[in-house]
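PT: before anyone asks, these are the final sequences, not the draft ones from last week. 856 residues across everything. Please model them as a single complex and drop the result in this thread when it's through.
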Amino acid sequence: MKRNMSKLFSLIFGILAVALPFFAGDYPLQVGRNIMMYMALAITWDMLLRSGQVSFGIAGLFGLGAYASILGVIHGGMPSWVSIVFAAIFAGLVAFIIGFLILRLRAMYFSIVTLALGEIFRIIVQNLHEFTGGPEGIVMQGVIFGGNANRLYWLTLAGLGIALGGSYWFENSKVHFALTAIRNNEISAQSSGVNIFRWLLLAFVVTSAIQGLLGGIFVQSYGFATPDTVFTTDFMLLPIAMALLGGIYSTTGPIFGALLLGIVSEWLKLKIPYGHLVVYGIMIIIVILFMPRGLRQLLRQGLKTTNGRSA
Amino acid sequence: MVVKRSKAILAAILIAVSILLIVWKPTVLIYGLQAAALYAAIAIPMGLVLGIVHIVNLAHGEFMMLAAYTAYNACKAFGIDPLLAIVPTAVVTAIFGWVIFQLTIRRALKAPELNQLILTFGLAIAFTQTINLIFTSQTYKIPLDYVSASMTIGDLTFGIWSFVFVPVAIIFAYGLQYFLTKTITGKAALAVGQNPRGAAIVGIDVYRTYGLVFAIATALVGAMGALFLTKSAIFPIVGSPFTMKSFCLIAMAGIGNIPGILGASVLLGVAENFLRAFRGTRDWAEIVFFVLIIIVILGRSLKGRKS
Amino acid sequence: MKLATKNLTKRFLGLVAVNNVSFSMEEGEILGIIGPNGAGKTTFINLVSGIIMPSDGKIEFKGKDITSMPAHERARLGIARTYQLIHPLENLTLIQNIMVGSIFARGHNLKEARKRAEELCSELGLQNVERDTSHLTILEIKKMEIARALANEPEVLFLDELMAGLNADETKELIAMVQKLAKERKVAIGVVEHVMGVIRELTHRVIVMEAGEIIAEGKYEDVSKDPRVIEAYLGGAA
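LR: through. Structure below.
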C-alpha cells in the first residue's frame, strides 16, 4: 500500500516536473534548472556515501566534465550532445585512475584527496591556458538548442533522470548489498566474498561520470566555462547540505533536501551577497550532530508514533 | 645492517641534493626551507590532534585564518605590531578552539569517522563564510618594514624574515615531544591517544585530555596566525591550502611522528620552490603536495598488500 | 585434504602471534582448536580466512596455494568463518545479512540468494526474517552469524567461540546443527571453544595451541591428559 502510494506520488511529481515549461516563465525555469542540477549532484554524493566514503570532490569532477565538454566542442569539433557524453566518459576515466591509485586506503585519505581535487583540477585548467583559455575561461560559439529555455530545462531534467536512475540502480540491485555491507562492517563483508576495492571503484567511477555529465550539461547550457564558475564551493557545498538535510542513504532524501534548500538558496542569494554559504555550513554542523539521518528520519519517526506501527 | 645502510644512503642523497642546489639554484634551498618551516609549524598541531584525539580536523587551516583575522583587527585597533599580538591571539584562539571542541567535535567522537569528516568540513565552511560575510573576500595586509629585510651573499640577495618560521617549527616539534614524553599531562595525553579505554581505567579523564590537547593545538595554530600575518595578506580562504598540505605532511611522516613532519616539510618546501624556479614549471608548484599524497598512499597500500 | 598450513607464522612487530603452525583438515571432520587466551587461535583463523597476511609459511586449499589470496577470493573458493564479536550489518535486515555471502561468494542473483537465505533460516530455526538486527536474542545472533557464513556454501568453516554466552539447551541445539553440517554437507569444520564439554562432544580431533604454537594434537580424551596441555591452561610452576 505504502509502495503504491509513493509510486503514485513519484508519477504525479514526474509529470509535473516534465510539464513545467508549459506553464512557467523563463525565470522559474532557470531556478528549476539550478535546483535540478544541485539535486542531481546531491544524489550522486549520497550514492557514494552509501559505501561509507565521503567525497568532497563533486565540484572537481563536475568542473572537469564541464571543461571536457566545452573543449570537446571547441577543439574537437564535437556536436553538443556528443560532448556531454564525452564529459561523462572523461570524468569517469579520471575517477577510475585516481580511484585505482587511492581507494586501497580509505576514509580520511580518500576524503582529503577528493577535497584537493577541485583545487588541483582548477590549477591544471588554469595552467594549460592555451588549451583551456586559462583564468579568463573559454567561450563557445553558440549555446545548445540556441538557448531555448524549455529545451534547456528538459536537458537538465534528463541529467537529473540519469542521476535518479543511477541511484535507483544502486538501491535495488547487488550494489545495495555490497555498499551497505562495506559501510557497516568491511571485515564481515570481505568474509562474505565482497571485493571491497572493486565495488568502491565502481561507485566512485559511476558517480563521477554522472557528475561529469552534469558538468557537461551545465556548460552547454551557458556556453562558457571559467575556472571560477565551474570549480566553485557552491557545487561542492550545496549538494552535501541538501543530501544531509533531506536524509542520507536514500534517493528521496536528497530530492527533498534539494527542493527545500534550492528555494532557500535563491532567496538567500538575493538577501546576502557575500557569505550566504555560511548558512549551509552551519546547517551541515547542526544536521550531522543532532539529526544525522536528516529530515527523512524525523518524518519516519513522526509517522511511527502516529501509526503505532513501525514504518 | 640493512636499516643503517638505507639511512646512510638517504643521508648521502640529501647531502648531494643540497650541495647541488646551493651551487646551482641556492634560492630554491633558501626559500624552500622557509616555506618548509611555515608548513611544518602549521602541520604539527594538526598532527597532535590526529595522533591523540584521532580526528582529522578539516577546519584546521581555518583556525589559523581566524587567528590571523583576529590578530589583524587587534593590531589595527590597538596600533600594535603583530609580533606583540602572538601570545594574546594564541590565547584567544585556544579558548575559541576549546569552546568549539566542547560544543561540536566532542559530540561526534563516538560517531563514525564519516560524521567527523563532515562535521569538521562544515566547521571549515562556517568559519570561511562567516569571515566572508563580515569582511568580504577582500585581502588585508599589514605593511611592516622588517619583513622586507634581506641578506646579500655574493651576488645573491634573498629575504630572510621568513627564516623566523624555522625556530618556531623546531620549537613546536621538540617542545611537543618534550611535553608528551616528559610531563605528566603530556604522558597522560599520549596514553589516551594510544588506548583511550585503558587510560580511562587508570583514572585519566579522557574527554578533559581531548579538550586540553585540542586547545593546545589551536593555541599553536593561533600563534602561527599572528606570525603569518606579518608576511602574508589574509583573505577568507587563505587557510584551506594549509589544511591539505598539513595532512600531506602528516601522511608522509606517519601519524604520531611529529618530528618526522619537519623532514617531510623540507621535501615539500624544496620541491615546490624547485618548480617555482623555472618559468615553465612555475605554475605547477601547487600540485606538488597532491602528487606527494598520492605517492604516500600508493606506497602504504602496496606495503599493506605485501604484509 | 581440504585445508592445510605449512609453517604458518605471523609476527606483529616484536610479538610472534602464530609460530610455525602446520596442520591439515579433512572433509567432514570436526577439528577442535583449543588453548588458553592469547594462544593465537583467532589470529590463526584470521590468517587462514585471509583477513591478515602471514609473515611466513604456506596455506593450501585442496592442494592449491592460497597464501597470498585476498579474503574475499578465499570466501569464493569455499572458506568461511564466524566472528567472536558479532557486529551484524545494521542497515540490512536479518535475511539480507545472510544473503550477502550468497550474492558475492557464490555469485547468485538476488532472487536465488533470497531463496537460499530463506532455506538457511528455516533450517536454523530463524523466524521473522524481515526484522532489523538491533533487537535479536543472543541465540538468534549466533544463528544469523552461522547462516551468514553458510551462505558462502563453504567447504571449510571456522566457528570462533560460537557457544559463548549460550545456555545448555541452546548449546545442545547448535552442537547438533554443527554435527549435521559435517555429516551431511561434508564441511570441514574448525571449532574454537573454551567450553570443554562442547569440544568433548563435538570434535573428532583436537589441536592445542599455546603462545602461537601447536603443543598437542589428537583425540580430546588423550589431549586433555597431556601434562603440557594441563600446564598451559593452569600456568607454569606456581
